[in-house]
Design goal:
The chain has about 210 residues and is an alpha+beta fold. The chain has 2 domains: about 130 residues, Glutaredoxin, CATH 3.40.30; about 45 residues, Antioxidant, Horf6, Chain A, domain2 (Antioxidant, Horf6, Chain A, domain 2), CATH 3.30.1020. It contains 7 helices and 11 strands. It has a 5-stranded mixed sheet with strand order 5-4-3-6-7. The chain has a 4-stranded antiparallel sheet with strand order 8-9-11-10, with helices on one face. The protein has a two-stranded antiparallel ribbon with strand order 1-2. Bound molecules: benzoic acid. Benzoic acid (BEZ) binds next to helix 2.
Length: about 210
């Protein structure tokens, strides 16, 4: 059974490029991203890991710890990191799991046998401080991820975890948000004193409350 939103993220211990990691200990009270790659020394993965490293400050600002995975061995990961740093002008300073026996890949359903029997697809899990799965995205090997979209969703997840709001299509941090249907229109002014608009009885917006 695949992992679904709201499920507990399974804990594991794994060999990584920065030593053995216990996943829950690594996350601590932070948010987390666990994402898999098909293989080392492949072009799309090289750009993805480089982009992740370049966005290090953005992840840190959001209190997000990043952990990558592929089913290649540790010495291969370490040698590949040199290539990533050289070609993407970055410093890969987050751990990459060497999941040779596919323990973590199987735990998280990262192998999709009809796509590849042997390699992980591009799975991505966002995990909340409560260790629950908040987002899953799966890309095929041939399509690199949009990491700005990943950051955008994290902004939405963190905002909606703390306020009775939802974010509309294509929302970006700083834009107006939707008041959730559970809040009665007459209760909006007290909850959202920055103002609100009633476009339809079921569609009410307010300026982003934490800005
Ligand atoms: C890549 O990461 O470049 C890649 C991996 C597997 C298939 C196609 C592309």
């Amino acid at each position: 059974m695949s992992l679904r939103l709201g499920d507990a993220a399974p804990n594991f211990k794994a060999k990584t490029t920065v030593g053995e990691i216990d996943f829950y200990e690594y996350l601590g009270d932070s948010w987390g991203i666990l994402f898999s790659h098909p293989a080392d020394f492949t072009p799309v993965c090289t750009t993805e890991l480089g982009k992740t490293a370049l966005l290090n400050g953005e992840f840190a600002k959001r209190n997000v710890k990043v952990l990558a995975l592929s089913v290649d061995p540790l010495d291969k990961h370490k040698s590949w990191i040199n290539d990533i740093n050289e070609t993407q002008q970055c410093d890969v300073n987050f751990p990459i799991i060497a999941d040779e026996d596919k323990t973590v890949a199987n735990l998280y359903g990262m192998i999709h046998p009809n796509a590849s029997e042997t390699f992980t697809v591009r799975s991505l899990f966002v995990i909340g401080p409560d260790k629950k799965i908040k987002l899953t995205i799966t890309y095929p090997a041939s399509t690199g991820r949009n990491f700005h979209e990943v950051l955008r969703v994290i902004d939405s997840l963190q905002l909606t975890a703390n306020y009775s709001v939802a974010t509309p299509a294509d929302w970006k941090d700083g834009e107006d948000v939707i008041v959730v249907p559970a809040v009665k229109t007459e209760d909006i002014p007290a909850k959202f004193p920055k103002g609100h608009k009633v476009i339809k009885p079921y569609l009410r917006t307010t300026p982003q409350p934490n800005k």
